[in-house]
């Protein structure tokens, strides 16, 4: 018997991202406020009986692999290793979140995979089990699963929910390149000690969100340590910052966002992908009803 589920996986932006010390495992400790936004990938899972674990990935994007390099594939393997179950899993990915953009597109798809498979098989794993698998597979998965607004610490996998502010957001990303987390953090490591200092905006913004009614977002606290590490290496990023001075990079970039319904500057759509009119949301991965 075949079972099917379709889920939507939201992108995230980093309202703050303060990079701290380097850890023994090679990652950096961070303090970040992550925010889910209503830009979604959609994943359709079809599961049928099999005497072994078999996986087929497909989708509408030419910019991601449909093999064992994909985080969705890795999440499927982790799920079946943990549960001991066996099945044939067919997944179709409708990709709307830009790739290598600092928006957690791969992470949110993987979190959606754990969510979907656990529901299809009638919850063989506890919430704690799923959280553990998310942390094993990446730094953003735990947040993507939950969504909303959260202070994230450790390497990003420790999340503490806070009230979600309501705001408009628009994003812009250069078309010609992406930036991997490895590149951004390597360049951050090469900065001087003075350049690595952080203003503790995560704590300031967190307190503001927890104590203001209605929940209001103070734009003066938006901050990203990694922006300073990569911006001077790419003329497109300097162009974004010059023409939209209030814009802030998300994650490891190269996407920048502003808290407006649309950008004031008209970016060349032959060189940039622009998505206007997005909004903050208070949830994470969900089934499409």
Beta content comes to 25-35%
Q: What is the class of the largest domain in the CATH system? A: Alpha Beta
First and last CA, distance = 21 Å
Looking at the structure, the CATH topology of the largest domain is: Ribosomal Protein S5, domain 2
Class of secondary structure makeup: alpha+beta
Helical content (DSSP H or I, runs of 4+): 25-40%
Report Rg. Answer: 19 Å
Number of helices: 9
CATH arch. level architecture of the largest domain: 2-Layer Sandwich
Mean pLDDT: 94
- Coarse morphology: globular
The count of DSSP E runs of length 2 or more, i.e. the number of strands, is 12
Series of secondary-structure elements, N-terminal to C-terminal:
EEEHEHHHEEEHHHEHHEEEE
Detail the poorly predicted runs.
none
Structure overview:
This protein has 289 residues and is α+β, with helices and mostly antiparallel strands. The protein folds into two domains: 3-162, Ribosomal Protein S5, domain 2 (2-Layer Sandwich), CATH 3.30.230.10; 168-279, Alpha-Beta Plaits, CATH 3.30.70. Helices cover 29% and strands 30% of the residues. It contains nine helices and twelve strands. The strands form two sheets. Strands 1, 2, 3, 4, 5, 6, 8 and 12 form an eight-stranded mixed beta sheet that branches. A four-stranded antiparallel beta sheet has the order 9-10-7-11, covered by helices on one side. The longest helix is centred in the middle third of the chain and has 16 residues, at 105-120. The relative contact order is 0.20.
């Amino acid at each position: 018997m075949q079972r099917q589920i379709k889920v939507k996986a939201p992108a995230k932006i980093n309202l703050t991202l303060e990079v701290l010390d380097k850890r023994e495992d090679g990652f950096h400790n961070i303090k970040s406020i992550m925010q889910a936004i209503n830009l979604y990938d959609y994943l359709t899972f079809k599961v049928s009986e099999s005497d072994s674990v078999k996986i087929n990935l497909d989708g509408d994007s030419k910019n991601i692999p449909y093999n064992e390099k994909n985080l969705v594939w890795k999440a499927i393997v982790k799920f079946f290793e943990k549960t001991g179950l066996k099945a044939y899993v067919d997944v179709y990915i409708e990709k709307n979140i830009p790739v290598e953009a600092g928006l957690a597109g791969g992470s949110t798809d993987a979190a959606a995979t754990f969510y979907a498979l656990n529901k299809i098989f009638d919850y063989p794993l506890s919430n704690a089990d799923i959280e553990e698998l998310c942390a094993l597979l990446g730094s953003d998965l735990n947040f993507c699963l939950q969504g909303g607004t959260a202070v994230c610490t450790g390497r990003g996998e420790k999340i503490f929910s806070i009230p979600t502010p309501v705001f408009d957001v628009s994003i812009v990303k250069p078309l010609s390149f992406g930036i991997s987390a490895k590149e951004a953090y390597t360049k951050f490591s090469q900065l001087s000690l003075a350049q690595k200092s952080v203003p503790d905006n995560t704590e300031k913004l967190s307190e503001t969100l927890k104590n203001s009614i209605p929940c209001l977002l103070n734009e003066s606290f938006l901050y990203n340590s990694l922006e300073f590490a990569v911006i001077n290496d790419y003329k497109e990023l300097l162009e974004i910052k010059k023409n939209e001075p209030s814009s802030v990079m998300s994650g490891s970039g190269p996407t920048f966002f502003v808290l407006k319904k649309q950008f004031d500057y008209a970016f060349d759509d032959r060189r940039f992908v622009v998505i206007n009119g997005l909004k903050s949301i208070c949830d994470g991965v969900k089934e499409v009803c």
